[in-house]
């Protein structure tokens, strides 16, 4: 029986043919009914329902290609202990998320967030709208990877000199200054916007807590397109309710879907989108560029060409 590529996502015939051309000895499978799990060598995507049969004693799994950039929900320690390689889809969402954040920023600086509130109340009131130039705002981007760099490039067209935060503070093109994650508190008090694009790791879990929001200036805004559990949600709710910060624009949450009764829904100074910032119009094409490069390398020497994840660090 041939080796199996088990995919969580069905791909168009053109991509199946490319997979077959690179790995003719592999069978592409999306249906787990009557599947011989011991023959699965690699997966595209991951399901919690697969974990037990895929990692049984007689398994031959050697590589998991995640469909997303974030891999915090996968059993990383198990992969590490069993020498299973992991790669992610980092980079394919950069343009989409960068444009999502840019839209949020322009919506806020041009007063659309308040205008929507006024519209619901049938109120013609320009006096309540605070207009600002985007280029005059101090914008801190927490996460200087593919997405952060693309966002920084877009913001430069508006005259913004973005400040970047990464693990060790190393310089990154497009950022006027960079600081380490441990130095975040140095830039929080003066930032007009703080944008989280970090993956979820032990270091970033509940990074944005009560102390963080208390450090922000009252006219500051917080944007999250990274991971929901990086935020202590109750602390953010309190900060918005008490005016400790002016605004939040959130695409990700600790609990998803966000429960209908959650207080965030009813806060006028909170804009919610349902985890859609990373939606890519041509997902299959851009994802396959990564996967096919990796597949070619994998069938050649068992290694990966792109986006290999450090199982220790989680990104």
UniProtKB/TrEMBL annotation:
Family, as annotated: Belongs to the D-isomer specific 2-hydroxyacid dehydrogenase family.
Domain D-isomer specific 2-hydroxyacid dehydrogenase NAD-binding as annotated: residue spans: 103-277
InterPro entries registered for this protein in UniProt: D-isomer_2_OHA_DH_cat_dom, D-isomer_DH_NAD-bd, NAD(P)-bd_dom_sf
Organism, scientific name: Enterococcus diestrammenae
Keywords recorded for this protein, A-Z: NAD, Oxidoreductase
PANTHER family for this protein: 2-HACID_DH_C DOMAIN-CONTAINING PROTEIN, D-ISOMER SPECIFIC 2-HYDROXYACID DEHYDROGENASE NAD-BINDING DOMAIN-CONTAINING PROTEIN
Record SUPFAM superfamilies: Formate/glycerate dehydrogenase catalytic domain-like, NAD(P)-binding Rossmann-fold domains
Domain D-isomer specific 2-hydroxyacid dehydrogenase catalytic: 49-300
Pfam families (alphabetical): 2-Hacid_dh, 2-Hacid_dh_C
Protein name per Swiss-Prot or TrEMBL: Hydroxyacid dehydrogenase
